[in-house]
Write a structure and sequence with these properties.
This protein is an alpha+beta fold and 456 residues long. 24% of the residues lie in helices and 18% in strands. β6 and β7 form a beta hairpin. This is SAM-dependent methyltransferase TRM5/TYW2-type domain-containing protein.
């Protein structure tokens, strides 16, 4: 037998091992440069305008336009017959304009095909006889068709012949030039408008002929029925025909007739976005000086927007409030700012009305319950709604008796009364107790809540 191999044990001691001597690394100095320069360390740097999509800094301001926030963008569009618009919209999905709040299908004013050229189309004969022209004749017709009992059962039928007050006002204004005022008001409320530009001249080459018809690129005449504009993606605005996507060229080639004419037309158009289109933060970024933090958040209490402006915002508080009011209508009708911290026993806030109406009385809906609130006389905090709902859902049980010692107008007491057995509510502010009583009756929970003033 081969004797086993005995190996000697070797113990390594770390402090006895010959380790290589390391050199101390030289000191490295790093000079950090800010990624974006800003005049204030607290304020975020202004972002660069995006390469695509709508932007106030990227658009072109139309000359002599009354709206200082109007911005124009050049686009290409397909002018197609109205019946073919919906199928083509689904077919060209991904190649059409995809901007927020802008439809990729536009309709030009007075675009009725042959009707715009002064030609009349034969109208089909009416299937039903025409209704009587006068209000008296309509009432007599209703009287013949329905008896007295029928009129009682269908009272709305008796009102069909009565013109509404709004209709009477429109008729009165129509004789005094009211249509022009209504048109100006309607144009003032527009968010954007699409206009056809770029008529073809004789100096242009014939690369569009045979592909878009004899009218050429950008012709306004149309020989068919009503038409629509399919707005193409903004990246196609300056492209030639050969550079267009295959899907768009296939549509044009498929619809080209043997004589070189086409049922579709490729045109250039201009999309103009107005003040009503731009969001609040982008408008404020354009109005406020460089380096000021853009106020984008506020607390909503019914129809009231509650701002907490910084000292740097105070010189522009009226301007900020007006933009907040314009961009949040009709939900927001009043904009206020807290002028001082809460220092009284009733915890009421000192508020300054900056824009809108002066009423601080509002109705708040929270968790399906309605609360009347006077923001200048009682305390209310909408940000505690999640905590109140957590207490009602996770802490309170059906057999509990809850005592709310600082109830205010009753957001927690009334919410708990829908679940628990009974609620005692108390507050030091007499005005808050008055609104608590109103809200109990408003939500039909007065039998489950007992209230009292402090010390009574």
């Amino acid at each position: 037998m081969v004797p086993p191999l005995f190996l000697p044990r070797i113990h390594f001691h770390p402090h006895c091992l010959p380790l290589p001597r390391l050199r101390r690394p030289a000191a490295i100095r790093l000079s950090l440069k800010p990624l974006c320069s800003s005049s204030s360390s607290d304020s975020p740097a202004r972002t660069r305008p995006p390469l695509h999509g709508p932007s106030l800094r990227r658009g072109r301001a139309p000359p002599d336009h009354p709206d200082p926030f109007a911005r124009a963008f050049d686009l290409a569009a397909l002018r197609v017959p109205a019946p073919a618009c919906a199928p083509l919209e689904r077919r060209l999905r991904g190649h059409l304009l995809n901007w927020p709040r802008v439809r990729n299908v536009a309709r030009l004013p007075n675009d009725q095909g042959l009707l715009s050229l002064g030609l009349s189309l034969p109208s089909p004969a009416p299937r039903h006889p025409a209704s009587p022209a006068t209000a008296v004749a309509r009432r007599e017709k209703l009287a013949r068709e329905f008896n007295a009992r029928g009129f009682l059962r269908f009272p709305n039928l008796a009102r069909l012949s009565r013109p509404s007050p709004a209709a009477r006002k429109r008729r009165e204004r129509k004789g005094d030039g009211g249509d022009e005022e209504a048109t100006r008001e309607r144009d003032r409320d527009k968010a954007y408008v699409v206009e056809v530009v770029g008529e073809r001249t004789e100096d242009d080459d014939d690369e569009w002929k045979g592909l878009v018809g004899e009218e050429g690129f950008g012709r306004g005449a149309w020989r068919m029925g009503p038409t629509r504009l399919l707005l193409l993606d903004e990246s196609y605005a300056e492209r030639r025909v050969d550079d267009l996507p295959e899907a768009v060229k296939d549509v044009l080639d498929h619809e080209t007739q043997q004589d070189g004419s086409s049922a579709y037309e490729l045109i250039r158009c201009q999309l103009t976005l107005f003040y009503n289109y731009w969001p609040m933060n982008e408008v404020l970024e354009a109005l406020l000086p460089e380096g000021i933090i853009i106020p984008t958040g506020f607390e909503t209490v019914g129809h009231i927007a509650h701002l907490n402006l910084r000292d740097e915002h105070l010189p522009y508080k009226k301007l900020i409030a007006q933009v907040v009011l314009d961009k949040n209508k009709p939900k927001i009708q009043t904009v206020v700012n807290k002028t001082d911290a809460i220092q009284n026993d009733y915890r009421t806030m000192q508020l300054e009305v900056l824009a809108g109406n002066d009423s601080l009385r509002t109705m708040v809906i929270e968790s399906g319950l309605r609360f009347q609130v006077d923001l200048g006389a009682v305390y209310w905090n909408s940000r505690l709604a999640t905590e109140r709902q957590r207490l009602v859902n996770d802490i309170f049980r059906d057999s509990d008796v809850v005592c709310d010692m600082f109830s205010g107008v009753g957001p927690l007491a009334i919410s708990a009364a829908k679940k628990v057995k009974y609620v005692y509510a108390n507050d030091i502010n007499p005005t808050a107790v008055e609104y608590l009583e109103r809200n109990m009756v408003l939500n039909k929970l007065e039998r489950k809540i007992e209230m009292c003033l402090e010390g009574s």
